Structure formats: structure tokens, C-alpha cells
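The freezer alarm interrupted the setup, so I double-checked each line after restarting. Inputs confirmed:
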Amino acid sequence: MPIDVLIKDKATGGLVLALLVEDVEPSEVAKAEASWRPVREAAVRSLRSQGLTDAQIAGHLQHAHWDWIAKTPLISLLAFKCVGIKYQDEWQGLALLQSGTKFAGLAPDRGKPLIYVDYLESAPWNLAGFVEQPKYGLIGFRLIEYAVRYSQAEGFFGRVGLLALPQAEEFYENGCRMLRVDEAGEHGMAWFEFTREQAVAFLGGGG
Amino acid sequence: MSAKRTMTLNLSDAEMAALEELAKKKELSKTGVVRQALRLFQLVDFRLERGEKIVFEGDGAKKSELLVL
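Predicted 3D structure, all chains:
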């Protein structure tokens, strides 16, 4: 059953009721990718026309190359869960979560399983880097909120971890108040984590 | 978050001891340990069937490939 969640309509500043879908089917992931890709590609073309090199564009739009269709073979596996937020019949965000495949790096639960946020993306029309006037906000926040609740349901006490692209560090560190674990970073990305205490504080914050 | 079904699991003393130790160490229920084990087994099998390898890394250059039969 989809879950009602509130997202922000940036045009009005008000909250609107969207649906969070817990198990997004591969065909729906393909629909999201089909609607998001042209927006991503248009943003890349725009930067290229302004004279930016591919390396500079990759620095500005760090996930412009993501392809959700390539991830669909994983979705049927037990360790993976794809969740998404839908509003006005359009996918506004997706997250690919893994259960128990990675472990906490922070005390007091170091070595205990957590929910790993493998990928999380808000639709490109919601992101300032891709469009001049983003449509909806709180998408990433609601998906992280779900990851914490999923962690609790799995018996992981809200523990969540992820590797953040540099452009997303501000959101996870200051927006969600996740803790950076310096020694756990990989591939030039920083590792952020919710301990069980941080998870409770995050949910209590309410967004 | 989804409906659950029940089964009886018959384990040897050693297997039950290992299950209980893991449950205590990871702060999971015994059911939780079995569920995580199943997820990892399925994921490992999926990746091996795609021609990937499992490698464990330790300190320094220590690296060993795990052969799963």
C-alpha cells in the first residue's frame, strides 16, 4: 500500500500530498528514467553550449550520467528495495536501498547491519542544477525518512548509511544531520551514517 | 512491511549455537539472522552467475578470493 507523504510545492511554498511507493516495479523505474533523462540531457547540453568541458559538467551535475534502467535487474533481489515518490502521476524521486549488505562504522553499533542507500535521486525538474525553477522539495528528505523507518522494521534500530556525492554532502550532513565517518569513504565519496540515536532525532525533527 | 509466512527450521546444536551467537552479536532476532543470510546468499549467487568474483581485503596488500562452490 502506498504511504501518504507531504512534499513541498516550490511554486506556492505549500505542502502537497504525494504517494510513497514501497516496491517500485522495474517497468515503473523505466518510466521514471524515460521522463528524467531528457531533462538531464537538456541541462548537460545547456552547459556544453556555454563552453563548459565534459569534466566541468561532470563536476556541476555529478549524477547526470545515472541510468536507473541499468539498476532494474537488482530490484528483484531480496537485499534490494526500490522506493519512490509519485505526485500528479509522475515519479518525483527514487531510492534504491540495500538491507544488511553493509555494516555500521560508528559506536555503539559498529559492525551491526544497516540499511544502505545505494542510490537516491530527486527528479531533475526538482533540482536547481538542472532547471531554473525546481518544482517540488522534500523528496530526498522523505526517501531518507523511509530508509530510517525501513531500518527500524528490519530490526536495525534506524541505522542507515550511504556514500554521498560531493554535491549531496550538504544535504546529508546539515539537512539530515547524518554523521560523517571519514575513514569509511570510498571512490572519492564521503560515508554518512545515522546511528540509532541520530535516527530517532531525525524522525523527531519531522522535516 | 510485507506479509510473513512461518516455517519450522531444524538445526544441529552447533548450527543453533552459531545462530544464537550471531543474533546476539548483531543484535538481531534469530529470524532476522536467517533473513539476512538468505539475502546475502541470493545476492552472492546472483553476482557469481554474472561472472563476478568475491574478494576479501585485509590490511595492506592482503587480498584473497573466495571460491563459492
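Quick read of the result. The beta strands of chain A are 3-9, 15-21, 80-87, 90-103, 113-122, 136-137, 160-164, 179-186, 189-194.
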